[in-house]
Every structure is written in C-alpha cells, then in structure tokens.
Amino acid sequence: MEGPVVHITNAAEFKQKVINADKKKLVVVDFFATWCGPCKQIAPFYNQLSLKYRHVIFTKVDVDQAKDVAQGCSISAMPTFQFYRAGAKVSEMRGANPSKLEATVKQYQGEATETPYSVPGHSDLGDFIDKTQLHALNQATEHDVMSILKNDNSYLESEADEQLIIVVPFTCAVKLHSIKFTAPKDKGPRTVKTFINFKTLDFDEAEDTKEVEVLELTEKDFEPSNVTKLTFVRYQFVTSIVLFVESNLGDEETTVINQINFIGTPIETTNIKDFNQGQENQQK
C-alpha cells in the first residue's frame, strides 16, 4: 500500500493535482525512476511521511512515464523532490536523504486541520474506511450508517430497539488507539462490545462470540475534546472493526450516533496485486 500518495502520469494531472491544488496545502512531488536504486531505498520512507503528515499532499511522478512533466520541471537527477504551495515551487532537493526530506516537509507544511480532540502520534483514519463495505444492522432507513462519516446534522439511528451492529472495514490494516463518539447524551451508546477482523456479524453471533473489549461509555465520552481509549495492545492489526451497541445512556427506545471517528495508525503493507504483477514481470 502506498498510503495517500497520489500518482501523476501526465501534464494535465500535474496541473490539476499540484499547480491547482488547495492553496492552503503543501504539495510534495517525488520524481523517481523504476531503475533508480536510491529512489527505491527512500520510497518506503516517503510513503510513511504521507501517512504521518496527513495535511500535506504527497505525489509521485515516474520520469520515464511522464517525460513531459519531468522536462517541464527541469528534472535531471533522481530522486528529486519538489515542494509547491499555491501553484508555485517553494523548494527543491535532490538525492535520497530522509532526514533532509522530512525537515523540508516540516518547514513548509503549514498548519494541520484542527479538531477538538487530538491523540499524539495518531491520526483520524477516515480516509482508510472502505465506504463500499460499511454497513449496519437494525438501522433506520432514513438515518443509516453513512451518517457516521459525515460532520453535519445527519445521524445513525437504530430501528426496532436500542441495539445496533456497525461493521467498519478498512482499506488497509491499521492499529487502533481510540474511538471518538459524537452522540446526544440521552440516546448515545452506553455499552459497546468490539470485535475485530470480521467482514460481517449478526446479533446472534455477537451474543455468542467473545468480544475483544467492552466499552462502558458515559456522558463525558461525548464531550468534543474527549475520546474513548481502547486497550491499544489488542488492536495492533485490524482490517475491520465491529461495534455491537447493546444499550444507550438514557434507556431510550432507539440509539442515536451522529459521528464516529477512529483514531490510530495505518500499517504500511505490500499491495498484493502490485506484488504479483511485479513477480510476473520478473519471470518474463
């Protein structure tokens, strides 16, 4: 997995994703070649930077694939890293120097998006949720699970009773540190059981399966600056998490959740499809 790194293949994409990018954001461009040894050496570090500095846009340009872009940017050695803000180049460095690369990112990064809560060393994993596989059981038709990903007035609500099962798959393995629940204090979840690495789970299975952890929430968990901490050692390799909401704080007929944020760290892994393709190319 290459994390949030954006691959640019032609001049039109370079204009769109670098020159015309959000003016408030720093854009880093890694000009590399597949045959370049130093490029290969620094690539994993570059990917890690893209996961660490989520408010910075990281891109890659294969100089042999996008010769027009490389020529337009006067690239004569690989790797070369260029740094852009508001469409203008603010810095450039050549060579595979990890410490200098990160120092330059820090110098020009600007301010990260502020949230009322923060967990040092971890970030919001919203970009890594597989929205196509996200689902819930016992959800109201007009207030479904997609609402938990939105920062607006929408909300997820249970239907027949107070219980909910929420299945959240990730696009890569992650380490989970904590969960931020946003919910009304009377109808917000109280007892929540967690299960990891299940693609689906129904209510009978949730009753019969041993949970990873039982979270007992209070009104304080719903305050803007607070998060619900998980027993971190139990969540070191998570491809999906299932939340079984057993009850709510006010013993109301239905449970309401406005938003759920998962805080942690993506685990950089090899993209199996790319790996197999590389193996096939070597065998030809």
Automatic annotation (TrEMBL):
Residues 1-110 form the Thioredoxin domain. Keywords: Disulfide bond. GO terms for cellular component: cytoplasm. Residues 114-282 form the PITH domain. SUPFAM superfamilies: Galactose-binding domain-like, Thioredoxin-like. This is Thioredoxin-domain-containing protein. The lineage of its organism: Eukaryota, Fungi, Fungi incertae sedis, Chytridiomycota, Chytridiomycota incertae sedis.
